[in-house]
Amino acid sequence: MNRGTPLDFLMEDETMSFSSVRGWPSSTYFIEARKLPKHNNVSWRGNSCLNDGKSDSGIIFKDLVGGYYDAGDAIKFNFPQSFAMTMLSWSLIEYIAKYEAARELNHIKEIIKWGTDYFLKTFNSTADSIDRLVMQVGSGDTSGQTPNSHYCWMCREDIDYERTVAECHNC
Q: One Pfam family of this protein, by short name (predicted)?
């Protein structure tokens, strides 16, 4: 059974009206609310976690500010974040005319660029060989040793604790 695509509501003929495309910005608002720090269209969202990577002496990456939070907690998981940016990029390639018709082309490009700019901070791109890669910022550790970003459902702007950074070595 063909259920169509997420952008099928953007008709390519004269039946497309402004009211039929108003829902699309609401779906990108969901992504914007997970963006950090404050460079988004969400009026109630402010700066958060501006010291990511700066306090952890064991890592070589000292600026891990940016990217998107995962789900409703305050962890940045690179795998789901990279999947989301990949899917948005493929949708842009496949449906560029529909993004243009909805007047969302530049907006979706900005969302993707924000995510990919963060990924460029997670490894040493000038090295001959990539042997270290940041894979997570924030902890989901349940041992009680570190602040747990899974259980810490506080306002993200109020996070003032040092956030752990998990790396993959020789990956």
A: Glyco_hydro_9
pLDDT in tens, 23-79: 666 677 778 777 766 667 777 788 888 888 887 665 666 889 999 988 777 889 999
The SS3 of residue 109 is helix
Q: Which helix (H) or strand (E) holds 24?
A: helix 23-32
* Exposure b/e, 78-101, CB count within 10 A at least 16 = b: beebbebbeebeebbeebeebbeb
Q: Residue 68's beta-bridge partner residues?
A: 35
Q: What is the pLDDT of residues 117-144, one digit of tens each?
A: 999 999 987 888 888 899 999 887 777 7
CA distance 75 to 59: 17
**Phi/psi at 17 (5° precision):** -125, 170
Measured CA to CA in angstroms, residue 13 lies from 9, 50, 102, 105 at distances of 11, 46, 13, 19
